Amino acid sequence: MLLTSYRLGNLTLPNRLVMAPMTRARAVDGAPTAETATYYAQRATAGLIVTEGVHPNAVGQAGPAMPGIHTDEQVEAWRAVTDAVHANGGRIFAQLMHGGRIGHAEVAGHHPVGPSAIAAGTEIFTPTGPAPAPVPRALETAEVAEQAQAFGDAARRAVEAGFDGVELHGANGYLIQQFLSSSANERTDGYGGSIAGRVRFAVEAVEAAVDAIGADRVGIRLSPGGEIQGIVEQDVPALYGELLKALPDMAYIHVLTTVDDELLMGLRKAWPSAFILNPGGQIGPVEGTQEQGERWLANGADLISYGRAYIGNPDLVERFRLGLPLASTERETWFGTPNGYVDYPSYQH
Hints:
Oye-like, OxRdtase_FMN_N, single chain, TIM Barrel, 11 helices, alpha/beta
């Protein structure tokens, strides 16, 4: 089933493999480079590519050498990337990622913001090396709506840059999940406290993107119960059940395997449109496999996303089709190095 076509919004995907978003930290002055265009174009046989996290505004930048999409120069640079992917027959969404409290003044030139003035208790990568995550400035109520609208503005710019759509990053401890989290969000206004309050920011951010570019071009990534970057979520089934009910119609949700199969199946049944599952989970030693993908398609997922397997295997679709071995990668080349980016070849027969 992985190699069968699928209709996603207004796109026909030739297969059900999604290249998952992965930070590669190779932007220059906040913009993708010619090598970025090569990297994504090499992987254009994926049913859908979702880019690395792209910050929707300046304060949202989470780490050094991460690209943005909030200036005209960044839009122009991304246009070269989307043109290259489309020239190779691919389809590409931009992942919109606001770091929230995962950020540093040395990185973004702005002090990070978050739902509450609570540090993540982890380290942040800065241009001078790892540093403790600072205590963010808690957003005022009026400012929360501005940060939600930033996703809509970025979605509009993404379409200007030639992207086929956008995915909001609601996973892995960044701003959207910080609002969902009981450990990062201690607000007492309408954006905290109850489950309805904690899901409100996610819903408003998605609504802003949908209003900007249309429902069939918008998705969101989620890591229910995921506990990286200082995140703790209480009442996970109720929290995500409420979130899925409150979200507007859109192209898909993209879920990491951060909870047990029973809860994942419950989310699948509760969500009316496309369901993308990432079998590799969060950061760890396990890569998603072809067998896991087929199992989840049989269990009701529509599309399967692969992360690390796509770093070293630009031709992952063909390797799955022919049962070819996968190339491995070295962790020290995942971020920022000159090698380990566009130099992985297709399989040599």
